Every structure is written in C-alpha cells, then in structure tokens.
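New to this. Help decode both lines:
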Amino acid sequence: MLSAKDSAGRDCGCIINTLEQVTSTPMRISITVNKANYTHKAIMATGEFTVSILTESTPFSVFENFGFCSSRDNDKFAVYDNVPRGANGVAYMPEFVNAFISGKVISVVDCGTHSIFIADVTESKVISDEASLTYAYYYEHIKPKKSTAPSAPGAPKRKV
C-alpha cells in the first residue's frame, strides 16, 4: 500500500503492485503508479512516499478502502485512530503489514498511463515476520470470487 502527503499535507494512499530494488549502494527502489491516482499527484508535488508491505492476513476491506475510491474525495486513513508515521512524516498502515519503506524521489520515468518513481530509501523498518502478500495469494485467498449462480430453470438464454 502506497502512501504520501499532498501539497496541503493531507494523507493519501492507493494500492500498487510494483515495487523493486534498483540498487543496493546507494539503496534505491522503484515504484510504478498509475497517473490517474491522486497519490501520483501527491508524490509529484512532494517527492516523498512510504510503501507499507501488506501481509497475507490483509482483509479485502483494506483493498476496498485504498483501491476502490480516490484520495481526491476520501480520507482513506480516517478509519484509523492513531496512524503511525515514518521519519518523513508520511503515514504507513498501522496493521496488516510486516514492514514499511520510505523513499525520496530522485527520478521519474514517464511510461504513458503510469510513472516509475525511482527513489533513495530514507527509512525502512521490519514490523513483523508474517508472510508478505503476493499477487497470487491475493487472487487465490482474498479477492472475492465471482458468483457462478446458475440460471433459473426455464430462464431465457442471453445472446453474447
């Protein structure tokens, strides 16, 4: 889960699925963010972000909150009483995370619909040893399955 502060200091966040180590000396990471996300706008304005590494215990409600609505219109951190912050002042998830990594952007690569932010790691902290959430685990165990309810007997067939 990616978080940032907008230029007015308001917390925002979104779900991303791409974070990778770029170099070890200096320690650099990259994240890929859809330009349509308000969090993208916030990072472009401030140059700072934090990524909370979600765990396998993350409920679908976290994805609904951080993935299915915009920080433009919603305070996504309002559901938490006391949001922890890294040294950069950016909020990170207070639950369902095993670590967080904060970054200061040094370069932006325009990739059309998305930007790749390359950043120096300014802080990182291990919070628990719970297994990190993978894309495969999310699809297999967390994301609700589509309903496969059978058609009513005698119901007309729909042409596709």
The first helix runs from residue 38 to 46. The first strand starts at residue 2 and ends at 5. Strands lie at 2-5, 11-14, 19-24, 27-34, 48-54, 97-110, 114-126.
